[in-house]
Design a protein that fits this description.
With 240 residues, the chain is α/β, with parallel strands linked by helices. It contains eight helices and eleven strands.
Length: 240
């Protein structure tokens, strides 16, 4: 990446999560989930900020001297929450700025994943980048909650939730994205595609409108906190 390109790591954090409301503030040892995500992301050594719709999350991040922005404005997903905030300060952001969208429910985030995404943008043709993990085993083909990606020549060709046995080698998708700011502004104006609506995967909208997603191999982010069982598993892991 060129030395003058700036990077902004954004962590959208919604309080009223559908499956586990308030999960951002659940305790993992002496930290909350969102505090651990923030601290892990900050290890990548780029400017890092939490974007939230709830004052309790603001207090949690400020208590560790983190950077956080509070907005009541509703957003359908994390990318939209980032877009809403950055649009307010658009005149201060260079169009080539790399914006990294880190999910606020992955307290075991490996900061090297952020570094790898940013490195993708040393290629000036890269507009969007994401990460893939290990090859999906057949017993996970029908697990809809585990998103799969098929990759060809370093680019995503499609994403699926459920796949059929075949000769294709599907990989686990690690749901962190990076965009150039000018690209994020463009994709936020796109109309939803049928595939996106069907599978609830926003990246399909971008692809269906002709955008390429560069894929780079990443490290597992461990346990994502979606259910009460996940928080117990994460606590056991950290205590082991």
């Amino acid at each position: 990446m060129s030395s003058h390109a700036s990077v902004l790591v954004c962590i959208p954090s919604r309080y009223h999560a559908r499956r586990l409301p308030g999960k951002a503030l659940l305790n993992l040892g002496e930290q909350t989930v969102i505090q651990r995500v923030y601290r892990q992301a900050s290890l990548a050594a780029f400017k890092t900020i939490v974007l939230t719709d709830h004052p309790a999350i603001v207090r949690s991040i400020k208590s560790i001297d983190g950077e956080v922005v509070y907005r009541e404005q509703k957003a359908s997903n994390g990318s939209q929450r980032i877009f809403h905030y950055l649009s307010e300060i658009d005149d201060t952001i260079d169009p080539s700025t790399i914006v990294v969208n880190v999910q606020g429910d992955e307290p075991l985030l490996n900061p090297e994943n952020i570094q790898r995404l940013v490195e993708c943008f040393s290629d000036k043709e890269t507009c969007i980048a994401s990460l893939y993990g290990s090859v999906v085993s057949p017993n996970q083909y029908a697990m809809a909650q585990r998103v799969k990606v098929y990759i060809s020549h370093g680019l995503a060709t499609t994403f699926e939730r459920i796949v059929e046995p075949s000769d294709k080698e599907w990989h686990k998708h690690i749901g962190i994205y990076a965009f150039r700011w000018k690209t994020l502004k463009e994709v936020m104006k796109l109309t939803p595609s049928q595939r996106e609506i069907s599978l609830s995967l926003e990246q399909l909208r971008w692809m269906d409108h002709g955008y390429s997603i560069n894929m780079v191999e990443g490290f597992s982010n461990g346990i994502a906190i979606d259910t009460a069982a996940d928080i117990l598993e994460a606590r056991n892991f950290l205590n082991s």
